[in-house]
Write a structure and sequence with these properties.
With 727 residues, this protein is mostly helical. The protein folds into 2 domains: 484 residues, no CATH class; 206 residues, no CATH class. It has a 4-stranded antiparallel sheet, with helices on both faces. A two-stranded antiparallel ribbon has the order 3-4. Helix 22 packs antiparallel against helix 23. The protein is globular, with a radius of gyration of 29 Å. The two termini are 52 Å apart. 41% of the residues are buried. The C terminus is likely disordered.
Length: 727
């Protein structure tokens, strides 16, 4: 691939971004789309018609100003600690790659380009291989520049990574101590309760904890298998929500207009009939109501946070497969449908999902290899002779080699996050945030393996008709293959990075759903009600993948660095805008995604150092190789120190913190109030599968008091005028 093909790819993606961002700035001002682009901020569904004005149809950068002006405290109030951790990840990436881009562009890139004698040639026809380390002669003294750049990059990354890890850890501790009453601090989840034909699971739990935790045990709540009746009620309420087009009157007796059928029909709500049946048949009696079937799981409540912590960490019996205890998730975070899975099945489910994931990785080799074939025109012409005439055209060559391979790979990768989320759900997680973390790890591994390693391997096989024959030659082979594929990685950043941000901000699927409801059901209200949560399992792996590519190519092919820096800067604005306006925080994972980011960054650093070690060996630079080894060891030691210093705070709550909170509540006389609230905190049977019974709980910040009375029209008018009213 030459510079002209790269510029073609950049031009196409820039055009797509400009069009979509301009379209977004117009669509977000239309009253019909207020639920799509301001779903988090809309408090009332009653909106007035907005008169025509030119400003509604002219692109404007007001959303950029608002995303930039939002402080970290406001982000914490809006999206929780997970949103702040994600935002800090983007800030960290911008800071690191600002240094890396400067070092790579002004130090490494000229050395690579002038590594060999240059002949007169137009720059736009220059091959991208001329900008990689492959262009440097063997034994060149200029390899010292690459070694120095590697030291600067590593020291800068480790310093900033330590600062961010310490900051997120302090925020997590402040989140525990400063947040309102959290029922999960007083509760544990018990699974694998022994079955008895004489007594129920509830009596078994009460006898066990009353005997062994007599001084601290408070009460318990058994988990029930909801069954088909609850599912029928949930489906009926969801259908009611879709047809009525009203948030305030969801699942109340109403007359729904069905214009699609050509008339007016009565939509009878099944939900209220079910509730009336429950009232007549003794809904609270678990022995009569078939819906409430006891499972071998329960939430056990204790009189203090410290007692709950000790009970969760202790081994309850000599048989570790019975009375398994874990810290309870937050009420809104509980994954109710997975708590009834027998504990003995979990290891089988994990093995099954592992086998399924590996099978999917192998199947995915087909589209990756096909995408790599498009970068090798000579091989492509031999495989498909009928394309010879088309591939002779200059523009088609630039389009096929510079744009299509990365686009094809991006389209196939769209199926990965939903499938990995399904695999994570099959494993039986106890919380929704745990399922999302598990899916995040799976997507991260899958994308790094397929986007980087498989592309490198496939490119090596296609171009050299060889594969790694010896594990000892792996480093040397990677050192040769990675610079060759650097051009593909650059175009991938353009297609999967820049374009994905444009599609993220315009929200095509919710926009089409909103349009479909208006056209098909002829609804004049703000129809769409997606209640979207932030897709951390897709966006965190994408950010970390680009960081991995940036570190790996920092001294091998630094031409990718300016494109990455622009992507991180644009992503910072786009994602903050989405968190502020679009996505709703249904639960808070407590920043548990940050250790994943830390581990991946360290892996990226170590891998880049290993590749550099192989390159210096191929270039016969013994001194540079010798200086790289201490850097590699130092990075691993730094990682181990951070794991010992910060990671335990994310795994368990500190006993010192919980004891201080217990003493404070006891001193204030709040314990009786807390005990009363615990009984209604974990309410299983609600329409959304989440606890609505815990009305005493502090709800997530969706609207401020000033925003609560605003209509969709007023939110749009506030967006058009700048600066907005600051809460």
């Amino acid at each position: 691939m030459n510079i002209a093909a790269l510029l073609t790819s950049a031009g196409v993606n820039i055009a797509v971004c400009v069009v979509l961002f301009s379209l977004y700035s117009i669509l977000r001002k239309q009253p019909n789309n207020v639920k799509v682009y301001f779903g988090r901020r809309v408090a009332s569904r009653h909106s007035k018609s907005l008169g025509l004005c030119l400003e509604r149809f002219v692109p404007s950068p007001t959303w950029v100003k608002k995303a930039w002006a939002t402080t970290q405290d406001e982000m914490l109030n809006i999206g929780g600690l997970d949103a702040v951790a994600f935002s800090r990840l983007l800030v960290f990436s911008i800071r690191v790659f600002s240094v890396v881009a400067v070092i790579g562009t002004f130090l490494v890139l000229p050395v690579n380009y002038y590594g060999q004698s240059r002949t007169r040639k137009n720059l736009h026809l220059e091959s991208l291989d001329a900008f990689t380390i492959e262009n440097v002669k063997k034994g060149s003294t200029w390899l010292w520049a690459h070694c120095l750049a590697l030291y600067i990059i590593t020291l800068t990354t480790c310093s900033l990574l330590y600062i961010e890890f310490r900051s997120i850890t302090n925020l997590r501790l402040a989140h525990i101590t400063g947040s309102p009453l959290n029922p999960s601090h007083f509760a544990i989840l018990v699974r694998a309760i022994p079955w008895s034909s004489k007594v129920s699971y509830s009596d078994t739990v009460k006898k066990f904890f009353s005997y062994y935790y007599a001084s601290t045990y408070l009460s318990h709540q058994i988990v029930y298998d909801s069954g088909a009746v609850q599912k029928l009620k949930d489906d009926a309420e969801y259908a009611c929500k879709m047809f009525s087009g009203s948030l305030e009157q969801t699942c109340k007796p109403s007359l729904a207009q069905c214009y699609f059928c050509g008339g007016t029909t009565n939509f009878k709500l099944i939900s209220q009939d079910i509730d009336s049946i429950h009232a007549r048949t003794g809904y609270t009696d678990i022995h009569i109501d078939a819906r409430k079937k006891e499972c071998a799981a329960a939430f056990v409540f204790f009189k203090s946070r410290y007692a709950a912590l000790m009970a969760a960490q202790n081994l309850q019996t000599s048989n570790p497969m019975l009375w398994v205890t874990d810290q309870a998730p937050e009420p809104h975070d509980v994954y109710w449908s997975k708590l009834c899975i027998p504990y003995r099945q979990l290891w089988i489910r994990k093995i099954a999902t592992l086998v399924a994931s590996m099978t999917f990785v192998l199947v995915f080799l087909i589209p990756v290899t096909f995408a790599q074939c498009l970068t090798q025109l000579d091989k492509l012409e031999k495989m498909f002779p009928f394309l010879t005439g088309i591939l002779k055209k200059k523009f088609m060559i630039q389009l096929v080699t510079g744009y299509l391979p990365s686009v094809i790979l991006v389209l196939f990768l769209l199926a990965v996050p939903p499938l990995m989320m399904l695999f994570s759900a099959v494993e039986g997680p106890i919380s929704r945030s745990g399922r999302k973390r598990s899916a995040c790890c799976k997507v991260l591994f899958f994308t790094i393996w397929n986007v980087f390693f498989v592309n490198v391997f496939a490119g090596s096989v296609i171009s050299q008709l060889s594969v790694f024959t010896n594990i000892t030659e792996l480093t040397a082979q990677l050192a040769q293959a990675v610079p060759v594929q650097a051009a593909f990685f650059t175009t991938y950043v353009l297609s999967s990075g820049w374009a994905s941000l444009a599609f993220e901000i315009i929200q095509p699927f919710p926009l089409l759903c909103n349009l479909f409801q208006r056209l098909v059901f002829c609804s004049q209200e703000d129809s769409y009600n997606g209640n979207l949560t932030f897709p951390y399992h897709t966006e965190v792996p994408r950010i970390l993948l680009f960081g991995f590519l940036g570190f790996t190519c920092s001294i091998l092919a630094p031409l990718i660095l300016p494109f990455l820096l622009f992507y991180f800067s644009l992503a910072y604005l786009v994602y903050r805008n989405q968190i502020i306006n679009v996505y709703i925080k249904k639960y808070d994972g407590g920043g548990h995604l940050w250790p994943i980011a830390h581990n991946t960054t360290i892996f990226s650093l170590v891998f880049s150092q290993v590749i550099a070690l192989g390159v210096f060996g191929l270039k016969d630079s013994t001194i540079a190789s010798g200086f790289t080894i201490p850097l590699l060891i130092g990075t691993i030691l730094f990682h181990q120190y951070c794991r010992q210093r910060f990671l335990p705070v994310f795994k368990n709550n500190a006993a010192q913190v919980l004891i201080d909170l217990d003493q404070r509540d006891e001193h204030c006389g709040r314990l009786e109030e807390i005990y009363e609230q615990l009984h209604s905190a974990y309410c299983q049977f609600t329409s959304s599968g989440q606890s609505e019974c815990s009305s005493h709980q502090s709800r997530e910040h969706i609207q401020t008091p000033e925003e609560d009375s605003k209509t969709g029209l007023e939110i749009i008018q506030q967006d058009i005028s700048w600066p907005p009213h600051r809460v």
